[in-house]
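SEQUENCE-TO-STRUCTURE ENTRY
===========================
What this section holds: a protein sequence and its matching fold, both as plain text.
Question of interest: how does this chain fold, as expressed in C-alpha cells?
***
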Amino acid sequence: MKNTSDKGRSTSDDATNERRIARILREMRGGPRADYERIEAETVERLHDELHSRRVTDGIVDTDTVWFTPVVDQWMRSIDVGEEMLTTDSVVRYAAANEETLALRDALLVSLLSEADRDSVLRMACEPHSADSVHTVYDALTAVFTESTAVPDLPRCAMGVQMHAHLLKALPRRYTAHVHASLAYLCWWMGFFSEARDSAEIALDINPSCTLADIILNALRFHIMPAWADFALGEIDDDNCGPCET
C-alpha cells in the first residue's frame, strides 16, 4: 500500500502504521486475549432489552442520545489521542445497539472513513434519518468507491482496527457479525483485501442477512478496489507503459 497521506506524514510513518494494522489483524486470529474482559451473552441481552424498552417509553432519539454518547465519546477520544479508551460498558452498549439499530455501527465506521467530528458522529448515531446524517453517511460510504482523493488516514484507521479487535475479543461470537462487517469495509478500503474477505465471510456466516459484509464480498468478487487504489495503480501503469501501439 502506497503512502496515501497529504497531511505531512512521511512514508516511514505510514509504513509503521501499516505494520501496526497488520499485527493487530494477525493477533485477532489468535482467540480471546486476557487483557480484554470477556462479556457474557446474557449481559448483552439484558442491556438490549433495557434499550428497547427505553426507546418505547422515552423516545428513540432521546434514549439513543443518552445510551450512545459514552460510546461515541470514548471512540472519538481514542482516535484523537491515539490510545484506545473503550470500556467494557461501551462494548456492551455497542453490541446491544446493533440488535436494535445499525446507526451506531455506521456512524463509528464513518468516523474512520472521514474526518467527521464528535458532534457529527453522535448525530449520525442518534438521528440517522435527519438530512445531515443521511448525506454524511452516504457521502462517506460512497466516496471510497468513487473519489480518488478519499484516502485512508492510517493512524485513524489503525486505531479503528484496534477498537474493532477489542470488540471482537470481548463479545460472544453471536454478537460480532456487524463488527466483522464494519472491519471488512475498513480493511477493504485500506487495501487489506484478504483480511476484508475473511471478515466479511465470518460476518455472513454469523448473520447471512448482513448487507454491509455482502457489499464487500461483491466488491472483491468483481475485483472492485477503493477509488484511491484504482487511481494509484493506473498511475503506476501509465508511468511504466512503453510506447502505445496502434
